[in-house]
């Protein structure tokens, strides 16, 4: 979520200056809820939140999102998705009647995006229709929340049409110790809620299994090694690398693309770090640019497999983004080319 307070006020607080609200608790003594407050059960609907982007009725809003060809910038919508996921998570923790998040000192905890598990584009974006973004918490662990978001085209005298769905993993931290803080459990009462809860549990389990099977933890399996060897035999030998004479070959290292950026306070979140949705947009747009250069033509975004936030990006740091084409393929549905890109972000204080 983006910050509402002025950056000058944040600097004043960090320097030990007077707080604007004299009645606010001291940062050294944050409010710590009771154990009972931590474990108050919530229903899924308690966390439901939505946002409507009136593209059809507001030229000003459309101007903020329009791209060079007259369509909608998907990267800007990813910013909204991440912000909405944060709103959903805070609403689950603070209750359905909450109007503002408040300060970290007041609530005693903060919530961050741990990862984006998946984004799928279901249909093209239509700038002549409004967009409704909605979401809710579908699963809770000890200190984590699984949030599902949906984007729909609405209005224009047509039925609502799903455009994009996304799955976010949010974690809660104690404001004083920065350690895990318990989140409210969910009340499951209907068959539909049981199905959503099971989906959330599967999402968390898949993420844990994927982490345990990472190359940083275990060596490649025999099946993976066999696939790599087959790929080498097909493409990695001789001057032409095993490719047909009429088939163009591009070395993976030649697809490397990078850029460096200064991180300014205008893109901060409520924790005075760089907003995760902004980082998502930067990574997506670099990957999109790389794929466009590789294909030398117009491309279409299909899905995002996952984004992991390993650590926050400080304001004033230098951010380096690196992208590379990892895989290309084709199918009956997409006979031309499907390009998979990988983007890595590194922050330099």
Written description of the protein model:
With 349 residues, the chain is an alpha+beta fold. The protein is 29% helix and 26% strand. The chain contains eight helices and twelve strands. Strands 2, 3, 4, 5, 6, 9 and 10 form a seven-stranded antiparallel β-sheet that branches. Residues 17-31 have low confidence and may be disordered.
What is the fold's blueprint, element by element?
Layout lengths: L6 H8 L20 H4 L3 E2 L5 E5 L5 H7 L8 H21 L9 H4 L1 E13 L8 E11 L3 E11 L6 E14 L11 E2 L3 H22 L9 H14 L21 E6 L13 H20 L7 E2 L2 E2 L9 E12 L8 E11 L1
Parallel strand pairs: 1-7
Antiparallel strand pairs: 2-4, 3-6, 3-9, 3-10, 4-5, 5-6, 8-11, 11-12
Helix pairs in contact: 4-8
Please summarize what this structure is:
By secondary structure, this protein is of the alpha+beta class. Helix content is 29%, strand content 26%.
The H-and-E topology, N to C, reads as: HHEEHHHEEEEEHHEHEEEE
**Mean pLDDT figure:** 83
Structural class determined from secondary elements: alpha+beta
Fraction of residues in β-strands: 25-35%
Write down the Rg: 23 Å
The largest pleated sheet is described as:
7 strands, antiparallel
**Measured distance between first and last alpha carbons:** 22 Å
State the helix count.
Answer: 8
Residue runs with pLDDT of under 50 for 5 or more positions: 17-31
Q: Give the strand tally.
A: 12
State the shape: globular
**Roughly what percent helix?**
25-40%
């Amino acid at each position: 979520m983006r910050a509402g307070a002025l950056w000058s006020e944040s600097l004043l607080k960090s320097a030990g200056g007077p707080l604007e609200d004299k009645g606010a608790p001291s940062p050294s003594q944050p409010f710590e809820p009771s154990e009972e407050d931590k474990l108050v059960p919530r229903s899924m609907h308690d966390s439901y939140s939505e946002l409507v982007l009136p593209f059809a009725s507001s030229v000003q809003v459309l101007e903020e999102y329009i791209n060079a060809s007259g369509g909608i910038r998907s990267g800007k919508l990813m910013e909204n998705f991440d912000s909405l996921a944060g709103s959903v998570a805070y609403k689950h923790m603070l209750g359905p009647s909450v109007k503002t998040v408040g300060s970290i000192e007041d609530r005693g905890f903060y919530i961050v995006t741990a990862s984006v598990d998946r984004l799928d584009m279901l249909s093209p974006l239509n700038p002549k229709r409004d967009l409704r973004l909605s979401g809710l918490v579908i699963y809770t662990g000890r200190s984590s929340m699984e949030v599902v978001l949906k984007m729909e085209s609405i209005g224009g005298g047509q039925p609502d049409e799903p455009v994009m769905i996304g799955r976010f993993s949010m974690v809660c931290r104690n404001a004083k110790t920065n350690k895990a803080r318990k989140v409210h459990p969910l009340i499951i009462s209907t068959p539909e809620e049981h199905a959503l809860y099971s989906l959330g549990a599967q999402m968390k389990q898949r993420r844990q299994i994927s982490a345990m099977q990472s190359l940083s933890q275990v060596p490649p399996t025999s099946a993976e090694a066999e696939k790599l060897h087959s790929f080498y035999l097909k493409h990695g030998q001789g001057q032409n690398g095993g490719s047909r004479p009429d088939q163009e070959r591009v070395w993976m290292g030649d697809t490397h693309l990078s850029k460096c950026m200064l991180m300014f306070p205008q893109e901060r979140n409520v924790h005075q770090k760089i907003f995760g949705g902004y980082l998502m947009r930067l990574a997506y747009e670099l990957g999109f640019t790389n794929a466009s250069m590789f294909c030398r033509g117009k491309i279409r975004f299909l899905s995002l497999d996952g984004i992991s936030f390993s650590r926050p990006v400080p304001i004033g740091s230098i951010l380096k983004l690196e992208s590379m084409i990892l895989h290309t393929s084709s199918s009956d549905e997409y006979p031309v080319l499907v390009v998979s890109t990988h983007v890595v972000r590194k922050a330099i204080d």
